[in-house]
Amino acid sequence: MESSPRGRRPATSREDVARAALALFSRQGFEATTVDEIASEVGISRRTFFRYYQSKSDAVWGAFDAELARLDRLLSEAPDEEGLMQVLRRAVVETNRFNEEQLVDLRLRMSLIRSVPTLVAHSAVRYEEWCDVVARFAARRLGGRPTDLAPQTLARAALGAAMAAFEEWTRRDDGDLTEVVDQALALLATGFDEDRLKGQPLGGDGARIGDKYLQGGEPP
Amino acid sequence: MESSPRGRRPATSREDVARAALALFSRQGFEATTVDEIASEVGISRRTFFRYYQSKSDAVWGAFDAELARLDRLLSEAPDEEGLMQVLRRAVVETNRFNEEQLVDLRLRMSLIRSVPTLVAHSAVRYEEWCDVVARFAARRLGGRPTDLAPQTLARAALGAAMAAFEEWTRRDDGDLTEVVDQALALLATGFDEDRLKGQPLGGDGARIGDKYLQGGEPP
DNA sequence: GACATTTTGGCATTGAGTGCTATAAATTGA
DNA sequence: TCAATTTATAGCACTCAATGCCAAAATGTC
């Protein structure tokens, strides 16, 4: 099947390195873990670690690239009849459907990403790639270039919604990730109109937005 | 007037350090500028630089803390009758009203922040503080805690809109910052509904949203 | 076995950031 | 004027991430 690989075989894989790194991070903390430790855990040299991941932070992001590609595909393949926000909502929810094992890992990753300052910082770089994908989609739908105000605003706002959903999901130990993501994006589509938020029913499952999104809100 | 300061006088000020740093960054680039250079430019030691700013990146953020406090005040003092998004929109626009001299600096700062990866990363940390302020406001208005999904989604989405506005303003050399910020937040309040985006008039100045926000969008 | 290819390891270097300690400069009070 | 106190600074040592460079190891090919 595979064309014969020519030179020396890799001593390990990106996956194994990420696994070892994540284990160490969760055991002794991100900052307290040095690259040397990760490297020696996997049996490679420090120098080689940096050939697998550009930075210590990058090791936390696992297969994010693949997820991005999937989001891009989902957004591109959506039928034109389906509305802008509806496609976006469905695509983002879909890319966040994981099995139990993946979810355990993801929860660990996300809790690191949102609590360790170094990783909070680094996340901005990775999330920018996510925004680019969404902005390109928005530009196709709205017209204009991906760098224009409308696509950029939509992309960054959608990112914000997704981040809020992740944070909510990470903080609470129960709850379905896809459901929270769906709620956040639905919320975004309301334009945060107070009337719609507090009372009116929303299409789709017919639930009142207020029932699901406003924990402390009393009816007017 | 001032109570007499007790010990040795500071050799410089945060403002002067920031000014020198910014000048060097703009001349030779952020990465190519070392903390030693900045320090010696201001006539202090490297060690002392880190007593003025926690990191090299922080020097780019000038008086961001003051801006945050102002936003907080504007959001707190708004009348209850004024709608959620209207208050937010007005407050964010207001905190971004600067004079010509400040705008020159700001343009430089923002162009660094959005183009230098290290600063893109660091921005996430500072922007989180901004989100906290908005989330607290949203929680007061919507009920519940600032960490709940709705306030968090609104805060992060609003941040996204503001960032998109800054990016647009920084990229184009003309254009009024407050106007672009206002447009982005108005856009957010539409919920990105395609019908509203492409045709319907919006309250306030009565302009069609499509006229202002969609450069390439043709009427349906 | 010679050769090309790919990965790895080690070394040196740069530069950010931190902890510690001594010193300089300023006010206050006797 | 001198001592005590207070605050800011300078300098040193150290850790650690990240990068460039080059030699060595491992593998397939001819």
What's the structural blueprint in terms of helices and strands?
2 copies of one chain form a homodimer.
Chain A: H1 14-28, H2 35-42, H3 46-52, H4 64-77, H5 84-95, H6 100-115, H7 117-142, H8 149-171, H9 177-189, H10 194-198, H11 209-213
Chain A binds a DNA duplex (30 and 30 nucleotides) through helix 3.
Structure description:
The structure is a homodimer of 220-residue chains. By secondary structure, the first copy, chain A, is an all-alpha fold. Chain A is built from eleven helices and no strands. Chain A has helices at residues 14-28, 35-42, 46-52, 64-77, 84-95, 100-115, 117-142, 149-171, 177-189, 194-198, 209-213. In chain A, helix 8 (149-171) runs antiparallel to helix 9. Chain A is globular. Mean pLDDT of chain A is 89; it is low at 200-220. At the A-B interface, helix 7, helix 8 and helix 9 of A face helix 7, helix 8 and helix 9 of B. The structure holds a DNA duplex (30 and 30 nucleotides).
Compressed to H and E, one letter per element, the order of chain A equals HHHHHHHHHHH
The backbone outline of chain A, from C-alpha atoms, is: globular
Largest interface: A-B, 55 and 54 residues
Q: How many beta-strand runs of chain A?
A: 0
Mean pLDDT of chain A: 89
Chain oligomer state: homodimer
Helix content of chain A: 55-70%
Q: Helical region count of chain A?
A: 11
Report the structural category of chain A. Answer: mainly alpha
Largest sheet, strands/sense/barrel of chain A: none
| Strand portion of chain A | under 5%
What's the end-to-end separation of chain A, in Å? 66 Å
Rg over CA atoms of chain A: 20 Å
Poorly predicted runs of chain A:
200-220
